[in-house]
Amino acid sequence: MKLLEGQTVGIDLGTTYSAIAQLDMKGAAASICDADGRVTTPSVVLLSDEERVFVGPSPRLIAESDPHHVVEAIKRQMGSNDFSVIYRDQKLTPEFISALILKKLKQDAEKQIGKIANAVITVPYYFNDVRRKATQDAGRIAGLNVLDIINEPTAATLAFAWNRGELGRTDAQQAEKTVLVYDLGGGTFDVTVVRYSPTHFRVLATDGDVKLGGLDWSRRIVDFVAESFQKKFDLDPREDPIALMHLSQECEQAKRDLSTRAQVPISCTHQGKSQTIAVTRGDFERLTADLLQRTRDTTELVLEVSDVDISQLDEVILVGGSTYMPAVEEMLEQVCRRKPCRELSPEEAVAQGAAIHAAILEAKATGGESGMAKTVINRLRSVNTIDVNSHSLGVKITDPADRSRKINHIMVPRNTEIPHSVHQRFVTNVANQERIQISVLEGEARDPDACVTIGQFQIKGLPPNLPAGSPVELTYEYDSSGRIHASALELTGKNEASTSIIRDTGLNDKGLQLFEKLAERYQVE
Prior knowledge:
Helix content is 31%, strand content 32%. By secondary structure, it is of the alpha+beta class. The strands form seven sheets. Strands 1, 2, 3, 4, 10 and 11 form a six-stranded mixed β-sheet that branches. It is globular, with a radius of gyration of 25 Å. It starts with 6 loop residues before the first strand and ends with a strand.
């Protein structure tokens, strides 16, 4: 890890809102407001007719714009090769769109704290390597030196423990606490069980869904209103991009209002027809009951996998703007038999935790030469974290029970503490093989096609006349930074091959450099 000269920050790159924070000289994690004085910036990008983009534009400006020029929820597309936006004859990838959001956060914050060089960016725990690499690339395109990618629940727990004065206190009693972090954001969901003491921080288990969040709750209201409108007028407002955009804005606000009100009116206008529908909180909760149940199922599963009884939980922490929905708190109180804690700001906690993690990395890398109080530096340097992998790592092999097909043989199960290494022997399939192809897979499915191939390498120059069934030893090593090393040794002739996988899918260096230059041309407002 190399620190560049300049300020170091933490960034929550969210599906619907993003935030940036920094640890101040006294050790307080503080959010940095954007140009409009907001602690969060909407993760919405409006592409204008010139080389100007608006990040976090007002609802009025969005309403007056061509819906095809408005890009929302880009986080859900991170790592996807199938999604792009064509703008001024340029094919813009999710990484580039996300970089524009990061660039806006960076330039607004620089007006207050000076040049920003280094950043820790958060991702959902359940992001796979492809999505993590895309996030890392977005940071680089935006002109940031990305020190680390940290999981959102880990960041939230860091903020919780640090703000309570429980983290980094070598003079404090080393009593452990166990917390459950329920993180329901605008587009993604994670639940994680963490155990920590003043100097040690360990993730026990995690699970989630990168396609589940507040947007899905809002869309249920959109469908409810649109279907009522269609029933009355035989017209579907969802078929008109402009009508759909206006209705989506109305329903998003209605969802928020229903957290504090029992009923809200929603207006829908399409092809000269208008209708106002009253939606009650009961209607809303009925329409979205299955979505909430999915989060409940995941919560119960993570508790089971972590081997933590609910009586052992010290706190249940709410993170993400969607946790304001009353049904979320009620469900968690039923499952965990305790009232969830609302000490943290759901919208700011993740960015603040990322800022704490960034400060820890900076303190350990520089020896504390950052101008912070010595007591703060000592606290930061004493914190040690142990994480787990969110997806299993496997290898594609021939199915011993059916040699006509391939299977994913898992070598490092998910929720394994990292760093971790494992060795295992396999055998060659046929006689006289000239090379052995190793495919490193990420995923839980037995079918390799349902997993993600994150790396491949070959052992070449095998001995002549090598019989079938000759032994090959495969080693997987998963280090604490998330870097995966894989090696294979053919034991007869001692031929060896290896690879290091540092999120090696997505944009290559040439593509990154082109997007970096393109980002410099764009004026972000």
